[in-house]
Amino acid sequence: MSSEVRFSLANKQQLIAQFLKVRQHSEIYCQPLEIEDYGLQAIADTSPVKWHLAHTSWFFETFILKTTEINFIPFNKHYEYLFNSYYNGVGEQFLRAKRSLLSRPTVKEVYEYRANINTRIVKLIESFDQVPDEVASLLILGINHEQQHQELFFTDLLYNWYQNPLLPSYQAQTADKINQGRSPQIAPIKWIAYPEQMTTLGVNNTDKFFVFDNETPQHKVYLQAFEIADRLVTNADFLQFIEANGYVSSDYWLSDGWTTVKSNGWKCPLYWFKRDGDWYQYGLNGVQPLNLGAPVSHVSAYEADAFARWSNARLPTEAEWEHVASKFEIKGNFVESGRLQTEKNEQPLEVKQLYGDVWEWTSTAYGPHPGFNPAKGAVGEYNGKFMCNQQVLKGGSCVTSSEHIRSSYRNFFYPDARWQFSGIRLARDL
Amino acid sequence: MSSEVRFSLANKQQLIAQFLKVRQHSEIYCQPLEIEDYGLQAIADTSPVKWHLAHTSWFFETFILKTTEINFIPFNKHYEYLFNSYYNGVGEQFLRAKRSLLSRPTVKEVYEYRANINTRIVKLIESFDQVPDEVASLLILGINHEQQHQELFFTDLLYNWYQNPLLPSYQAQTADKINQGRSPQIAPIKWIAYPEQMTTLGVNNTDKFFVFDNETPQHKVYLQAFEIADRLVTNADFLQFIEANGYVSSDYWLSDGWTTVKSNGWKCPLYWFKRDGDWYQYGLNGVQPLNLGAPVSHVSAYEADAFARWSNARLPTEAEWEHVASKFEIKGNFVESGRLQTEKNEQPLEVKQLYGDVWEWTSTAYGPHPGFNPAKGAVGEYNGKFMCNQQVLKGGSCVTSSEHIRSSYRNFFYPDARWQFSGIRLARDL
Amino acid sequence: MSSEVRFSLANKQQLIAQFLKVRQHSEIYCQPLEIEDYGLQAIADTSPVKWHLAHTSWFFETFILKTTEINFIPFNKHYEYLFNSYYNGVGEQFLRAKRSLLSRPTVKEVYEYRANINTRIVKLIESFDQVPDEVASLLILGINHEQQHQELFFTDLLYNWYQNPLLPSYQAQTADKINQGRSPQIAPIKWIAYPEQMTTLGVNNTDKFFVFDNETPQHKVYLQAFEIADRLVTNADFLQFIEANGYVSSDYWLSDGWTTVKSNGWKCPLYWFKRDGDWYQYGLNGVQPLNLGAPVSHVSAYEADAFARWSNARLPTEAEWEHVASKFEIKGNFVESGRLQTEKNEQPLEVKQLYGDVWEWTSTAYGPHPGFNPAKGAVGEYNGKFMCNQQVLKGGSCVTSSEHIRSSYRNFFYPDARWQFSGIRLARDL
Amino acid sequence: MSSEVRFSLANKQQLIAQFLKVRQHSEIYCQPLEIEDYGLQAIADTSPVKWHLAHTSWFFETFILKTTEINFIPFNKHYEYLFNSYYNGVGEQFLRAKRSLLSRPTVKEVYEYRANINTRIVKLIESFDQVPDEVASLLILGINHEQQHQELFFTDLLYNWYQNPLLPSYQAQTADKINQGRSPQIAPIKWIAYPEQMTTLGVNNTDKFFVFDNETPQHKVYLQAFEIADRLVTNADFLQFIEANGYVSSDYWLSDGWTTVKSNGWKCPLYWFKRDGDWYQYGLNGVQPLNLGAPVSHVSAYEADAFARWSNARLPTEAEWEHVASKFEIKGNFVESGRLQTEKNEQPLEVKQLYGDVWEWTSTAYGPHPGFNPAKGAVGEYNGKFMCNQQVLKGGSCVTSSEHIRSSYRNFFYPDARWQFSGIRLARDL
Cα(A254)–Cα(A256) distance, rounded to whole angstroms? Predict the structure, then answer.
């Protein structure tokens, strides 16, 4: 459902079912964890699992129960402060970088919090003859919000575990995965050309589909002629860049990118390492030989840009990407596959891997679509206030829910971010 | 001349005259300084005057003399390292933040360096029957480069002096300026509407006019309908924002902007201060009562954006601004006026102050125009490698040369920069 | 036993009993904890509980089993790296500040590690007819080392919990404690005079008593005449300093101390806070009204020095303190009392509270006693390499084991440290 | 005169002569400088020359003229703030790290300030029939203070110039100096033994000799038996330490020292560098081949301690050093020699080089002598408030005035400081 729910007409039971399904998934994803794993936070960006579980509950409590429930009493009066992420309109927040210091509430207490919120939300929805538009809208926003945190659950956990020399594995490696780890490089990129034209981008916020406010409104854009790669850049491709001294020479790099490379000592994508002359990659399936045919992942926008420049190409603009992708069905390697890593291209499509595998860096700075208006109140802080210094990524990754993605979807990260499943598709001027 | 020179046909004497004129201006601007003033550098961004004088000479020496002069011998073999700003293609650079530590070469020696380069450039140009295109092109680039550093001379000097409680003044305050300091607020903003339309932006690099590579190529853009303010935001306007707790409430701020405000303790534009209940502004004319009718200056993109949001408006996009400005003549309060500060609007134009007074922050992230290609070699690092994390500003300021500006000109700074003469023009969706 | 064991003659069963008793205490102290509490580390100084439990086991494994056990196999080959604190002679160490990122090994696995080491140590000791001196010596060192970490267990846990607005409590507050929280200020300080004289300080490392190497050798010192306070400085005393603007005026402060006060915004001892006009103190018994009659705790050497200066007194030198304390029996408020906080003075002694309650800052920089020689090998890094920039504290605290302390005992911390139970005794020249 | 003046009986003309002589020397030392050199400040510690010239004048103005002159008017009302170093009792201070940003007052204005203060001080002294003790005392303190800043003039200038790849030279290298630069290693250290004994250290503040307050009072100390090296550690000695991997292995280092070495990447003393396999040293005479027979200089206390440990020795305590040195005449390589660098030992003494060449690191933390009382008022901040975290150095250096030193003189720096002429003498337990 999710992105297809017509929420103004929403069948209550359908809403409740979707709510409970997504809420349950957050907990299912935690099953392989030890209690000790719930508290890790290596950097401010990578929040503890426990915090994700609590914050997503806080979202429903704050934006729905607090304003709608009769005789609302908070589950715990401290949680408003502890589990508010960044909503200044709601109030002060516990310091982001210190979330790992909250040993209390315990994991058990957070699960109790979740159960309590679930019960109350279901009761609230059931209490309506007709779910008010605003409640339905916020509920669906909360569901989508929780799906985003499910993705962060995986990316944050991976980064946090990576600090531990024991390199924990989220799931056992199957023979299939190990074999895939040895897949060879695949066929060269084919370039698919698009003539110059007017196109429309973004979507309007109707009652038919859920979209985030930052995807709105639909608007006209003029595209210059361009061509786009028919597949993602692979680990094998990226290895060539490394072996051609891509990280050694400043020639291909943006100035800020080169400064970042030098000050962090980057020599390869995050999670890659070389042992006895062979390259390996750490991931949710543990340590594996570098999978040559699979899309490269965990690169920053700087690395993506440098690779593109070295390839005599460039990154696509958001408009180019969205124009291309809007013509394709949403199929790909998503979290539902259970693989939790990129895989080599096997789609029989003209342009492959647009959805899933990795978020694709675009050259477009994250800003408002023409005519953009954020929602009123604190919930309006969801997307709009981040429209500076970040770059747009498109298409979802191997830890995104397939229900959660669409061509207009706008993900955004600072250009130096590497802990997401972020990769590269090339484009060129015609 | 500068932006109007047809350099392929350039008359040698014309080229030499323009070269010498601009070179001389750099030295004229230094006349009020004490030797001690030449070495100041408060932050990495604000280079010492002496360094500007040497670096602009190094530019001609490196990009023209070194490749063209027969039996080239560097003026001083250490200067290539000391006065290279950021050209990795030329070699390593002395650390930017430490430029103030170069007491040697002395000011006198740097003036000797300048004289030497001037003589050799003139001799070189005179040695040609017909100045080769590439040499002419680099010479004009060097002239424009020096003009940019003349602007930085003023903005860096002001920032560096500002650290000194004695608050030195670059020039004596005339009665005129003091009176102007008491000019009242001016008429409210009028909004000028533009319908949706296709337009062309950027310029092509022809042999008729000099432009920087980042202004090219000319390309088509689709504009949504919008309206733009007929004048700049004034100090009086901005004071209202302050008095309405603009710096106290997070409501109007981008997330990164709010973080910046908090961590720097910003409470007003740079160089403003309050004494005994009255507002003053420090500038190149010393300390003056806040000039209510003059455009606000020395605000970051964050402050510009927050002010716009508080005004139920937004910043213009670069495309909107350029579309509007391309229809107006280049007239305004530039360095040639000798005022060296913003002044109240007195232009009898439908849209006033587009040129001069302050660089106008746009909402557009600095990136390549579609089809952009940087120049080959080290000189290609001039603009292209900075196309990330910065924001476009348009129109020139009261310390820009009027010869140096045009509607396609793209200035760029990080959104937290305040030491330029940067201000605000509002726009709105229609 | 501990400090009284004659280890060369040590009865094996006595050694084993003492070993197991101390090892068991580390685990008993953890009983009130949730699993989530074991991983907290707010700053590099305050290691996670789990790390303390593992590191103390690593100490026995590395310094005894590894060198003595036949066919030694490490419990886990990664632990040598993960749980080495600072012994460069053993090898590289996992970064101290990142210990909280080790969710694995789990708490359960660390307890298994502890049990394994216990079994092997007991088996090893039992395998000897006569325990070799070196083994006995290292075993007793390891036992004393574990007692030190038991103290750190309490002080680190308290600091780590303090970051959490929920302010967890280690144990329930008894009525007794709450009443004590209201104990009034006690009688004024009496000054006890000591004439100038030769004295001996330190101890020799004989086979009769265990001492740390930094307490050796015994040596002669000449003392000037002085007088010493008969009791510790109380919370009531320190409150007067605060109310006399002690933290506001630079007059009483060492230069480095004043810089520290300003940059940290210190306004009172660590864990004090004011609510609705009343002072409270957070501690292992939770939040309590400030106990006026109890010794002030959690002050830095800077605060101790400033308080002393404000009192027209000074801190005692280590020699003065040790000379005085060596004449008194070791009795006081130690961890065995179960109070885990300072208490008001009720000792019928001429000089009270020399032992227990708080570590007493001296004015003596931590350095080697004349003739000091650290042990050979990596274990020689235990104390000697820290003899710079730190200050000596004497007498033990309310979370020290009474078995662990003596007048020659030298504790040492940087002068800005506040997370230990550190307090103040005054002295004066005569 | 200086340290020998009986100031209560001081002949006015003698006082004035000494004042003018020392004041003049500050200016003589500046003669080789360019105006640009006066403003350099590479780090907070190394103040600009201009600031030293002004601050020493401020000292006389603030502590003598302001309290004694009739109808005192400050030379410039801003100077109290700008040129106060660290006297909180006088008022707030301009931020130390930003002194290089004061291009105004100019060098010329500062010399005018100096002249003005000189005139007024002379006039004031001449106005007395009998110079009051307090004025005489402060005048002599000011004279000694200025001598200290003359030493800092040299050490700060050298450090500031060192940042410039042009490596300016303060004076031309004479053939003599260049030859000396090739002097070979000298005879091995001989050890001079001292039996255990009572001794007296420090001095009492009588009217016979000027001493700083931190040298008082005289007090009894018990010395253990020890032996001390008959000469300083040479560059050749220290080179052996480097070649024995002294900077590579943690074995010899204090923990804080090792951290400092690693984080700063130290591989040799400050100002040493290797070029084409040969060692050179930069100094006030420019770049020279490493002078093997001369004392090593510009090492931190950490390096001194590590070298001593590697040599199976230790640093002397302050008491040991002072006990030894008090028996020797004050002769050595001081600023008056004009060499401005260390030289090889040619003294026909049992213990050589105790005075001059380099300040000798002791193992003694800088603290108060027993019974120490700082002066009343702001001038009491001169020494006392620094008695923490620093280490005592003894004996003066090649840029100290010979009039300024004595065996009781206590210099103090943080153990990581290297920009002073600081070196090493070894000691051992007997």
Answer: 6
Distance from CA of D68 to the nearest CA of C (A): 24
A365: closest chain B residue by CA: B365
Cis-peptide, bond into residue C217, ω within 30° of zero: yes
Query: Do chains D and A touch, with touching meaning 3 or more CB–CB pairs less than 8 Å apart?
Result: no
Going from the C-alpha of A153 to that of each of A45, A244, A282, C35, C104, the distances in angstroms are 12, 35, 17, 21, 18
Residues B255, A371: C-beta atoms closer than 8 Å: no
Q: Structural domains in chain D?
A: 3-162 (1.20.120), 175-429 (3.90.1580.10)
B and D adjacent (3 or more CB pairs under 8 angstroms): yes
Considering only CA atoms, which of B152, B147, B42 is closest in space to residue B96? Answer: B42
Chains that touch A (3 or more CB pairs under 8 A): B, C
Q: With CB atoms and an 8 Å threshold, state whether D371 touches C224.
A: yes
- Is A163 in Cβ contact with C101 (below 8 Å)? yes
pLDDT at B176: 60
Yes or no, beta carbons of B198 and A222 under 8 Å apart: yes
Distance between A354 CA and the closest CA of chain C, angstroms = 35
Cβ neighbors of B21 (< 8 A, separation 6 or more) are none
Of D42, D78, D168, the CB nearest to B166: D78
For residue D88, the chain C residues in CB contact (below 8 A) are 250-251, 258
**What pTM was estimated for this model as a whole?**
0.96
Amino acid at A237: D
- Chain A residue with minimum CA distance to C106: A36
CA angle A203, A205, A210 (to 5 degrees): 95
User: pLDDT digit string (tens) for A93-151?
Assistant: 999 999 999 999 999 999 999 999 999 999 999 999 999 999 999 999 999 999 999 99
Residue of chain C minimizing CA distance to D376: C251
Identify the closest residue of chain C to D200 by CA–CA distance.
C222
Chains C and D are touching, with contact defined as 3 or more CB–CB pairs separated by less than 8 Å: yes
**How does pLDDT run across D226-271, given as a tens digit for each residue?**
999 999 999 999 999 999 999 999 999 999 999 999 999 999 999 9
Contact C386 D254 (CB under 8 A): yes
Taking Cα atoms as reference points, which of C182, C64, C175 lies closest to residue C121? C64
User: By C-alpha distance, which of A339, A245, A231 is closest to A293?
Assistant: A231
CB pairs under 8 A between B and D: 86
Q: Read off the pLDDT of each residue in A322-334 and give the average, rounded to a whole number.
A: 97
- Distance from C-alpha of D361 to C-alpha of C280, rounded to nearest angstrom: 46
SS in 3 state form for chain A?
CHHHCCHHHCCHHHHHHHHHHHHHHHHHHCCCCCHHHHHCCCCCCCCCHHHHHHHHHHHHHHHHHHHHCCCCCCCCCCHHHHCCCCCCCCCCCCCHHHHHHCCCCCHHHHHHHHHHHHHHHHHHHHCCCCCCHHHHHHHHHHHHHHHHHHHHHHHHHHHHHHCCCCCCCCCCCCHHHHHHCCCCCCCCCCEEEECCEEEEECCCCCCCCCCCHHHCCCEEEEECCEEEECCCCEHHHHHHHHHCCCCCCHHHCCHHHHHHHHHHCCCCCCCEEEECCEEEEEECCEEEECCCCCECCCCCHHHHHHHHHHCCCECCCHHHHHHHHCCCCCCEECHHHCCCCCCCCCCCCCCCCCEECCEEEEEEECCCCCCCCCCCCHHHHCCHHHCCCCEEEECCCCCCCHHHCCCCCCEEECCCCCCCCEECCCEEEC
Say what the pLDDT of residue A174 is: 67
List chains touching C (3+ CB pairs under 8 A).
A, D
Of A196, A371, A415, the CB nearest to B224: A371
What ipTM was reported for this prediction? 0.95
